[in-house]
Protein backbone atom coordinates (compact mmCIF):
# COMPACT_ATOMS: atom_id res chain seq x y z
CA UNK A 1 0.00 0.00 0.00
CA UNK A 2 0.96 3.70 -0.01
CA UNK A 3 3.00 3.74 3.18
CA UNK A 4 5.20 0.84 2.13
CA UNK A 5 6.01 2.45 -1.20
CA UNK A 6 9.46 3.95 -1.59
CA UNK A 7 9.27 7.72 -1.97
CA UNK A 8 11.45 8.49 -4.98
CA UNK A 9 11.11 12.26 -4.58
CA UNK A 10 11.82 14.92 -7.18
CA UNK A 11 15.42 15.54 -8.26
CA UNK A 12 16.84 18.83 -7.03
CA UNK A 13 14.08 19.40 -4.46
CA UNK A 14 12.88 18.16 -1.10
CA UNK A 15 9.75 18.34 1.00
CA UNK A 16 10.29 20.18 4.28
CA UNK A 17 8.47 21.96 7.10
CA UNK A 18 8.31 25.61 6.07
CA UNK A 19 8.29 28.07 9.01
CA UNK A 20 4.71 29.34 9.64
CA UNK A 21 3.49 27.73 6.41
CA UNK A 22 3.39 24.01 7.15
CA UNK A 23 4.89 21.65 4.60
CA UNK A 24 6.52 23.07 1.50
CA UNK A 25 9.06 22.42 -1.25
CA UNK A 26 12.64 23.68 -1.32
CA UNK A 27 15.59 23.46 -3.67
CA UNK A 28 18.63 21.34 -2.89
CA UNK A 29 20.50 22.57 -5.96
CA UNK A 30 20.55 25.72 -8.07
CA UNK A 31 17.92 26.35 -10.75
CA UNK A 32 18.48 28.92 -13.51
CA UNK A 33 15.75 31.18 -14.93
CA UNK A 34 13.66 29.17 -17.38
CA UNK A 35 14.87 25.80 -16.09
CA UNK A 36 12.31 23.04 -15.57
CA UNK A 37 12.18 22.34 -11.83
CA UNK A 38 9.82 19.39 -12.23
CA UNK A 39 6.87 18.10 -14.24
CA UNK A 40 3.80 16.47 -12.72
CA UNK A 41 1.18 14.44 -14.59
CA UNK A 42 -2.39 15.06 -13.45
CA UNK A 43 -3.61 12.60 -10.82
CA UNK A 44 -7.04 13.15 -12.35
CA UNK A 45 -8.40 15.66 -14.88
CA UNK A 46 -11.47 16.63 -16.86
CA UNK A 47 -11.86 18.65 -20.07
CA UNK A 48 -14.31 21.53 -19.75
CA UNK A 49 -17.60 20.98 -21.61
CA UNK A 50 -17.10 24.16 -23.69
CA UNK A 51 -13.96 22.72 -25.33
CA UNK A 52 -15.48 19.41 -26.41
CA UNK A 53 -14.84 18.83 -30.08
CA UNK A 54 -11.91 21.26 -30.13
CA UNK A 55 -9.59 19.35 -27.75
CA UNK A 56 -8.94 15.67 -27.16
CA UNK A 57 -10.57 14.50 -23.90
CA UNK A 58 -7.50 12.43 -23.01
CA UNK A 59 -4.43 14.46 -23.96
CA UNK A 60 -6.03 17.93 -24.41
CA UNK A 61 -4.43 18.32 -27.86
CA UNK A 62 -6.10 21.04 -29.90
CA UNK A 63 -6.86 19.84 -33.43
CA UNK A 64 -9.62 19.86 -36.03
CA UNK A 65 -9.72 16.19 -37.08
CA UNK A 66 -10.85 14.61 -33.80
CA UNK A 67 -13.32 11.73 -33.86
CA UNK A 68 -16.13 11.27 -31.34
CA UNK A 69 -17.08 8.45 -28.99
CA UNK A 70 -19.55 6.21 -30.78
CA UNK A 71 -21.70 5.74 -27.67
CA UNK A 72 -22.26 9.18 -26.09
CA UNK A 73 -21.16 11.15 -29.19
CA UNK A 74 -19.93 13.94 -26.91
CA UNK A 75 -16.31 13.03 -26.14
CA UNK A 76 -13.69 13.56 -28.87
CA UNK A 77 -10.28 11.92 -29.33
CA UNK A 78 -7.11 12.15 -31.44
CA UNK A 79 -7.06 8.42 -32.16
CA UNK A 80 -7.88 4.98 -30.78
CA UNK A 81 -4.94 5.14 -28.35
CA UNK A 82 -6.29 8.30 -26.73
CA UNK A 83 -9.79 6.83 -26.59
CA UNK A 84 -8.49 3.65 -24.93
CA UNK A 85 -6.35 5.68 -22.54
CA UNK A 86 -9.36 7.74 -21.46
CA UNK A 87 -11.85 4.87 -21.25
CA UNK A 88 -11.24 3.98 -17.56
CA UNK A 89 -12.42 7.51 -16.69
CA UNK A 90 -14.75 8.25 -19.61
CA UNK A 91 -16.84 5.09 -19.23
CA UNK A 92 -18.22 6.55 -15.99
CA UNK A 93 -19.55 9.64 -17.80
CA UNK A 94 -20.35 7.88 -21.06
CA UNK A 95 -23.02 5.66 -19.48
CA UNK A 96 -24.40 8.52 -17.37
CA UNK A 97 -24.54 10.95 -20.32
CA UNK A 98 -26.41 8.39 -22.40
CA UNK A 99 -28.83 7.81 -19.53
CA UNK A 100 -29.50 11.49 -18.74
CA UNK A 101 -29.33 12.93 -22.27
CA UNK A 102 -29.88 16.70 -22.24
CA UNK A 103 -30.41 16.62 -18.45
CA UNK A 104 -26.74 15.71 -17.91
CA UNK A 105 -25.27 18.83 -16.23
CA UNK A 106 -22.92 18.17 -13.27
CA UNK A 107 -20.43 20.96 -12.56
CA UNK A 108 -16.79 20.56 -13.55
CA UNK A 109 -15.84 20.10 -9.89
CA UNK A 110 -18.40 17.30 -9.48
CA UNK A 111 -17.09 15.61 -12.64
CA UNK A 112 -13.50 15.87 -11.38
CA UNK A 113 -14.35 14.49 -7.93
CA UNK A 114 -16.21 11.56 -9.52
CA UNK A 115 -13.08 10.70 -11.50
CA UNK A 116 -10.90 10.97 -8.38
CA UNK A 117 -13.21 8.55 -6.54
CA UNK A 118 -13.02 6.11 -9.47
CA UNK A 119 -9.23 6.32 -9.54
CA UNK A 120 -8.92 5.83 -5.78
CA UNK A 121 -10.95 2.62 -6.07
CA UNK A 122 -8.41 1.02 -8.41
CA UNK A 123 -5.17 2.69 -7.28
CA UNK A 124 -3.31 1.17 -4.35
CA UNK A 125 0.19 2.50 -5.00
CA UNK A 126 1.72 5.95 -4.91
CA UNK A 127 1.20 7.51 -8.36
CA UNK A 128 3.75 9.49 -10.43
CA UNK A 129 1.73 12.60 -9.42
CA UNK A 130 2.41 11.95 -5.72
CA UNK A 131 6.18 11.69 -5.42
CA UNK A 132 6.24 14.09 -2.47
CA UNK A 133 2.60 14.64 -1.48
CA UNK A 134 -0.29 12.18 -1.47
CA UNK A 135 -3.69 13.40 -2.55
CA UNK A 136 -5.11 12.10 0.72
CA UNK A 137 -2.76 14.52 2.54
CA UNK A 138 -4.41 17.58 0.98
CA UNK A 139 -5.60 20.21 3.46
CA UNK A 140 -9.40 20.57 3.52
CA UNK A 141 -9.75 23.51 5.96
CA UNK A 142 -13.22 22.25 6.87
CA UNK A 143 -13.04 24.04 10.22
CA UNK A 144 -12.56 27.41 8.46
CA UNK A 145 -15.41 27.15 5.93
CA UNK A 146 -18.27 29.64 6.24
CA UNK A 147 -21.92 28.71 5.76
CA UNK A 148 -21.90 29.75 2.09
CA UNK A 149 -19.00 27.40 1.29
CA UNK A 150 -20.63 24.62 3.30
CA UNK A 151 -23.85 25.04 1.30
CA UNK A 152 -21.90 24.91 -2.00
CA UNK A 153 -20.16 21.77 -0.77
CA UNK A 154 -23.49 20.15 0.07
CA UNK A 155 -24.93 21.12 -3.33
CA UNK A 156 -21.93 19.45 -5.03
CA UNK A 157 -22.40 16.30 -2.95
CA UNK A 158 -26.10 16.20 -3.86
CA UNK A 159 -25.21 16.59 -7.56
CA UNK A 160 -22.64 13.80 -7.30
CA UNK A 161 -25.27 11.47 -5.83
CA UNK A 162 -27.84 12.53 -8.43
CA UNK A 163 -25.66 12.01 -11.51
CA UNK A 164 -23.31 9.23 -10.39
CA UNK A 165 -24.83 7.08 -7.63
CA UNK A 166 -26.21 4.60 -10.19
CA UNK A 167 -22.83 4.39 -11.93
CA UNK A 168 -20.32 4.34 -9.04
CA UNK A 169 -20.89 1.50 -6.60
CA UNK A 170 -20.13 2.32 -2.98
CA UNK A 171 -19.68 6.09 -2.97
CA UNK A 172 -17.77 7.37 0.09
CA UNK A 173 -19.90 8.43 3.06
CA UNK A 174 -21.08 12.01 3.60
CA UNK A 175 -18.15 13.04 5.80
CA UNK A 176 -15.57 11.62 3.37
CA UNK A 177 -17.27 13.40 0.44
CA UNK A 178 -17.43 16.67 2.36
CA UNK A 179 -13.69 16.44 3.00
CA UNK A 180 -12.85 15.41 -0.58
CA UNK A 181 -14.78 18.30 -2.15
CA UNK A 182 -13.12 20.74 0.27
CA UNK A 183 -9.70 19.28 -0.56
CA UNK A 184 -10.30 19.66 -4.31
CA UNK A 185 -11.62 23.21 -3.93
CA UNK A 186 -8.46 24.22 -2.01
CA UNK A 187 -5.95 22.25 -4.08
CA UNK A 188 -7.42 21.93 -7.57
CA UNK A 189 -5.91 23.58 -10.65
CA UNK A 190 -7.37 25.15 -13.76
CA UNK A 191 -5.61 23.99 -16.94
CA UNK A 192 -5.26 26.89 -19.38
CA UNK A 193 -3.96 27.36 -22.91
CA UNK A 194 -1.40 29.94 -24.09
CA UNK A 195 -4.00 32.74 -24.03
CA UNK A 196 -5.11 31.68 -20.54
CA UNK A 197 -8.42 30.30 -21.82
CA UNK A 198 -9.93 27.64 -19.56
CA UNK A 199 -9.44 24.08 -20.84
CA UNK A 200 -10.28 21.99 -17.82
CA UNK A 201 -9.69 21.14 -14.17
CA UNK A 202 -7.21 18.79 -12.53
CA UNK A 203 -5.40 17.83 -9.36
CA UNK A 204 -1.58 17.78 -9.28
CA UNK A 205 -0.56 16.69 -5.75
CA UNK A 206 3.15 17.50 -6.03
CA UNK A 207 2.40 20.96 -7.47
CA UNK A 208 -0.04 21.56 -4.60
CA UNK A 209 2.85 21.03 -2.16
CA UNK A 210 4.34 24.41 -3.09
CA UNK A 211 3.39 27.33 -0.86
CA UNK A 212 2.16 30.68 -2.18
CA UNK A 213 4.06 33.93 -2.61
CA UNK A 214 3.01 37.13 -4.37
CA UNK A 215 6.66 37.22 -5.54
CA UNK A 216 6.87 33.63 -6.81
CA UNK A 217 10.14 32.12 -8.04
CA UNK A 218 8.41 29.52 -10.25
CA UNK A 219 5.50 29.48 -12.69
CA UNK A 220 3.17 26.61 -13.55
CA UNK A 221 2.26 25.97 -17.19
CA UNK A 222 0.63 23.00 -18.90
CA UNK A 223 1.67 20.61 -21.63
CA UNK A 224 -1.51 18.70 -22.29
CA UNK A 225 -2.50 17.28 -18.90
CA UNK A 226 1.02 17.56 -17.44
CA UNK A 227 1.86 20.52 -15.22
CA UNK A 228 5.37 21.95 -15.71
CA UNK A 229 7.02 24.03 -13.01
CA UNK A 230 9.74 26.40 -14.23
CA UNK A 231 11.99 28.85 -12.43
CA UNK A 232 11.29 32.53 -13.16
CA UNK A 233 14.00 33.70 -10.75
CA UNK A 234 17.32 32.08 -9.98
CA UNK A 235 16.73 29.63 -7.12
CA UNK A 236 19.63 28.74 -4.82
CA UNK A 237 20.08 25.58 -2.74
CA UNK A 238 18.09 25.81 0.51
CA UNK A 239 15.59 28.35 -0.84
CA UNK A 240 11.88 27.55 -0.68
CA UNK A 241 10.12 27.17 -4.03
CA UNK A 242 7.05 29.42 -4.24
CA UNK A 243 4.17 29.39 -6.71
CA UNK A 244 1.37 31.97 -6.91
CA UNK A 245 -2.18 30.78 -6.22
CA UNK A 246 -3.93 33.90 -7.52
CA UNK A 247 -3.91 36.68 -10.14
CA UNK A 248 -1.14 39.05 -8.99
CA UNK A 249 -2.45 42.17 -10.74
CA UNK A 250 -4.26 43.57 -7.72
CA UNK A 251 -3.04 45.58 -4.70
CA UNK A 252 -2.07 43.96 -1.41
CA UNK A 253 -5.39 44.17 0.43
CA UNK A 254 -7.27 42.65 -2.50
CA UNK A 255 -4.78 39.78 -2.79
CA UNK A 256 -4.93 39.11 0.94
CA UNK A 257 -8.72 39.10 0.84
CA UNK A 258 -8.76 36.61 -2.03
CA UNK A 259 -6.18 34.32 -0.41
CA UNK A 260 -8.01 34.34 2.92
CA UNK A 261 -11.35 33.63 1.24
CA UNK A 262 -10.14 30.85 -1.06
CA UNK A 263 -7.13 29.36 0.77
CA UNK A 264 -7.67 30.39 4.40
CA UNK A 265 -4.35 32.08 5.16
CA UNK A 266 -2.98 35.61 5.46
CA UNK A 267 -0.06 36.16 3.12
CA UNK A 268 3.10 37.57 4.73
CA UNK A 269 5.36 37.50 1.63
CA UNK A 270 7.79 40.29 0.79
CA UNK A 271 5.37 41.90 -1.67
CA UNK A 272 2.56 41.92 0.92
CA UNK A 273 4.91 43.31 3.58
CA UNK A 274 6.50 46.07 1.49
CA UNK A 275 3.44 46.80 -0.71
CA UNK A 276 6.04 48.04 -3.20
CA UNK A 277 3.71 48.02 -6.21
CA UNK A 278 0.54 49.30 -4.54
CA UNK A 279 1.19 52.96 -5.31
CA UNK A 280 1.54 52.29 -9.05
CA UNK A 281 -1.43 49.91 -8.99
CA UNK A 282 -3.65 52.50 -7.28
CA UNK A 283 -2.44 55.55 -9.22
CA UNK A 284 -4.67 58.60 -8.98
CA UNK A 285 -5.01 61.33 -11.62
CA UNK A 286 -3.00 64.47 -10.83
CA UNK A 287 -5.69 67.08 -11.44
CA UNK A 288 -6.91 69.72 -9.00
CA UNK A 289 -7.02 68.81 -5.33
CA UNK A 290 -6.39 65.10 -4.70
CA UNK A 291 -9.40 63.04 -3.57
CA UNK A 292 -9.53 62.01 0.08
CA UNK A 293 -9.14 58.43 1.28
CA UNK A 294 -12.89 57.85 1.63
CA UNK A 295 -13.50 58.99 -1.94
CA UNK A 296 -10.82 56.61 -3.21
CA UNK A 297 -12.20 53.75 -1.08
CA UNK A 298 -15.67 54.51 -2.37
CA UNK A 299 -14.41 54.38 -5.97
CA UNK A 300 -12.65 51.04 -5.31
CA UNK A 301 -15.91 49.61 -3.96
CA UNK A 302 -17.72 50.95 -6.99
CA UNK A 303 -15.12 49.45 -9.35
CA UNK A 304 -15.36 46.01 -7.71
CA UNK A 305 -19.15 46.01 -7.92
CA UNK A 306 -19.11 47.02 -11.56
CA UNK A 307 -16.50 44.39 -12.43
CA UNK A 308 -18.63 41.69 -10.79
CA UNK A 309 -22.04 42.71 -12.07
CA UNK A 310 -21.62 44.23 -15.54
CA UNK A 311 -18.88 42.27 -17.27
CA UNK A 312 -20.91 41.36 -20.29
CA UNK A 313 -21.88 44.82 -21.48
CA UNK A 314 -19.40 46.95 -23.39
CA UNK A 315 -21.55 50.05 -22.98
CA UNK A 316 -21.45 49.64 -19.20
CA UNK A 317 -17.69 49.17 -19.32
CA UNK A 318 -17.27 52.36 -21.30
CA UNK A 319 -19.55 54.37 -19.02
CA UNK A 320 -17.72 53.03 -15.99
CA UNK A 321 -14.34 53.89 -17.47
CA UNK A 322 -15.54 57.43 -18.07
CA UNK A 323 -16.74 57.68 -14.46
CA UNK A 324 -13.67 56.05 -12.89
CA UNK A 325 -11.34 57.84 -15.31
CA UNK A 326 -12.10 61.11 -13.56
CA UNK A 327 -10.10 59.81 -10.59
CA UNK A 328 -8.21 56.68 -11.66
CA UNK A 329 -5.30 56.78 -14.13
CA UNK A 330 -5.35 54.31 -17.06
CA UNK A 331 -2.61 52.34 -15.29
CA UNK A 332 -4.77 51.86 -12.17
CA UNK A 333 -5.56 48.15 -11.85
CA UNK A 334 -9.31 48.71 -11.63
CA UNK A 335 -9.22 50.71 -14.85
CA UNK A 336 -7.11 47.93 -16.37
CA UNK A 337 -9.61 45.29 -15.27
CA UNK A 338 -12.47 47.29 -16.78
CA UNK A 339 -10.52 47.71 -20.04
CA UNK A 340 -9.73 43.97 -20.06
CA UNK A 341 -13.43 43.17 -19.77
CA UNK A 342 -14.21 45.70 -22.52
CA UNK A 343 -11.54 44.09 -24.71
CA UNK A 344 -13.18 40.70 -24.15
CA UNK A 345 -16.57 42.06 -25.20
CA UNK A 346 -14.99 43.67 -28.29
CA UNK A 347 -13.47 40.32 -29.25
CA UNK A 348 -16.83 38.60 -28.76
CA UNK A 349 -18.51 41.22 -30.95
CA UNK A 350 -15.68 40.94 -33.51
CA UNK A 351 -14.85 44.63 -33.05
CA UNK A 352 -11.16 44.03 -33.78
CA UNK A 353 -10.14 47.70 -33.78
CA UNK A 354 -11.81 48.27 -30.42
CA UNK A 355 -10.13 45.19 -28.94
CA UNK A 356 -6.75 46.34 -30.30
CA UNK A 357 -7.22 49.80 -28.79
CA UNK A 358 -7.88 48.34 -25.34
CA UNK A 359 -5.00 45.86 -25.66
CA UNK A 360 -2.58 48.68 -26.42
CA UNK A 361 -3.64 50.53 -23.27
CA UNK A 362 -3.38 47.42 -21.12
CA UNK A 363 -0.16 45.71 -22.19
CA UNK A 364 2.48 48.14 -20.82
CA UNK A 365 0.92 48.58 -17.34
CA UNK A 366 0.55 44.79 -17.19
CA UNK A 367 4.29 44.39 -17.79
CA UNK A 368 4.96 46.85 -14.93
CA UNK A 369 2.49 45.43 -12.41
CA UNK A 370 2.96 41.70 -13.00
CA UNK A 371 6.16 39.80 -12.08
CA UNK A 372 8.71 38.96 -14.76
CA UNK A 373 7.70 36.09 -17.08
CA UNK A 374 4.00 36.49 -16.28
CA UNK A 375 1.54 34.42 -18.33
CA UNK A 376 -0.92 37.32 -18.10
CA UNK A 377 1.56 39.59 -19.88
CA UNK A 378 2.43 36.90 -22.45
CA UNK A 379 -1.23 36.22 -23.24
CA UNK A 380 -1.91 39.95 -23.69
CA UNK A 381 1.02 40.28 -26.13
CA UNK A 382 -0.30 37.17 -27.94
CA UNK A 383 -3.82 38.57 -28.23
CA UNK A 384 -2.49 41.93 -29.36
CA UNK A 385 -0.04 40.39 -31.84
CA UNK A 386 -2.73 38.25 -33.43
CA UNK A 387 -5.07 41.25 -33.60
CA UNK A 388 -2.38 43.32 -35.31
CA UNK A 389 -1.76 40.57 -37.87
CA UNK A 390 -5.48 40.19 -38.50
CA UNK A 391 -5.68 43.93 -39.12
CA UNK A 392 -2.67 43.71 -41.48
CA UNK A 393 -0.36 45.57 -39.10
CA UNK A 394 2.48 43.13 -39.75
CA UNK A 395 5.40 44.93 -38.08
CA UNK A 396 3.49 45.59 -34.86
CA UNK A 397 2.09 42.06 -34.91
CA UNK A 398 5.48 40.36 -35.18
CA UNK A 399 6.93 42.64 -32.50
CA UNK A 400 4.13 41.77 -30.06
CA UNK A 401 4.40 38.03 -30.81
CA UNK A 402 8.17 38.17 -30.18
CA UNK A 403 7.56 39.76 -26.78
CA UNK A 404 5.07 37.00 -25.97
CA UNK A 405 7.58 34.40 -27.17
CA UNK A 406 10.37 35.76 -24.94
CA UNK A 407 8.18 35.19 -21.88
CA UNK A 408 6.78 31.86 -23.06
CA UNK A 409 10.23 30.36 -23.73
CA UNK A 410 10.95 30.80 -20.01
CA UNK A 411 7.48 30.04 -18.65
CA UNK A 412 6.54 27.13 -20.93
CA UNK A 413 10.03 25.98 -21.94
CA UNK A 414 11.58 26.27 -25.41
CA UNK A 415 10.31 22.86 -26.56
CA UNK A 416 6.62 23.45 -25.73
CA UNK A 417 4.16 23.16 -28.62
CA UNK A 418 2.65 26.57 -27.74
CA UNK A 419 6.13 28.08 -28.25
CA UNK A 420 6.45 26.25 -31.58
CA UNK A 421 3.05 27.61 -32.68
CA UNK A 422 4.03 31.21 -31.94
CA UNK A 423 7.40 30.73 -33.70
CA UNK A 424 5.53 29.39 -36.72
CA UNK A 425 3.23 32.42 -36.72
CA UNK A 426 6.27 34.72 -36.69
CA UNK A 427 7.99 32.76 -39.48
CA UNK A 428 4.88 32.94 -41.66
CA UNK A 429 5.07 36.74 -41.58
CA UNK A 430 8.62 36.88 -42.93
What does this structure look like?
Strands 3-11-10 form a three-stranded antiparallel beta sheet. The protein has a three-stranded antiparallel beta sheet with strand order 4-8-7. The chain is built from 15 helices and twelve strands. The chain is of the alpha+beta class. It folds into three domains: 2-243, SET domain (Beta-clip-like); 277-369, Alpha Horseshoe (Serine Threonine Protein Phosphatase 5, Tetratricopeptide repeat); 370-430, Tetratricopeptide repeat domain (Serine Threonine Protein Phosphatase 5, Tetratricopeptide repeat), CATH 1.25.40.10. Helix 9 runs antiparallel to helix 10, helix 10 runs antiparallel to helix 11 (333-348) and helix 13 (375-390) runs antiparallel to helix 14.
Compact summary:
The chain has 430 residues and is α+β, with helices and mostly antiparallel strands. Helix content is 47%, strand content 12%.
Q: Please give the count of helices.
A: 15
The pLDDT mean sits at: 90
Query: How do the strands line up in the largest sheet?
Result: 3-11-10
> Low-confidence runs (pLDDT<50, min 5 residues)?
1-6
Q: Under CATH, the topology of the largest domain is which?
A: Beta-clip-like
The total number of structural domains is 3
Question: In CATH terms, what is the architecture of the largest domain?
Answer: Beta Complex
CATH class of the largest domain: Mainly Beta
Approximate strand percentage: 5-15%
In the CATH hierarchy, what is the superfamily of the largest domain? SET domain
Helix and strand succession?
EEEEEEHHHHEEHEEEEHHHHHHHHHH
The rough form would be described as globular
> How can the largest sheet be summarized?
3 strands, antiparallel
Question: Which structural class do the helices and strands define?
Answer: alpha+beta
Task: Summarize the amount of helix as a percent range.
Answer: 40-55%
- Rg, rounded, reads 23 Å
* Span between termini: 57 Å
Main location: cytoplasm
Domain MYND-type: 56-94
Domain SET: 11-246
Subcellular location: Cytoplasm, Cytosol; Nucleus
Amino acid sequence: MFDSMKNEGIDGTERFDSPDKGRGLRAVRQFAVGELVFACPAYSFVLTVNERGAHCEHCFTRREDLFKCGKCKQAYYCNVDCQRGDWPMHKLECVAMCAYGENWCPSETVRLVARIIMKQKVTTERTPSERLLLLREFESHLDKMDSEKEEMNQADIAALHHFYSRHISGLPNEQALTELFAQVNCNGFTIEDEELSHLGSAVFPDVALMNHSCSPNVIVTYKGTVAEVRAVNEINPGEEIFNSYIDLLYPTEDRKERLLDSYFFTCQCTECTTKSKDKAKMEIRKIGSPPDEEEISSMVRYAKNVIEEFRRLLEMCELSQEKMGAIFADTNVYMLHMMYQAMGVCLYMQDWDGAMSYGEKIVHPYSVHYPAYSLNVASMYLKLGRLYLGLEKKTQGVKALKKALAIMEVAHGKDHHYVAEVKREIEEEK
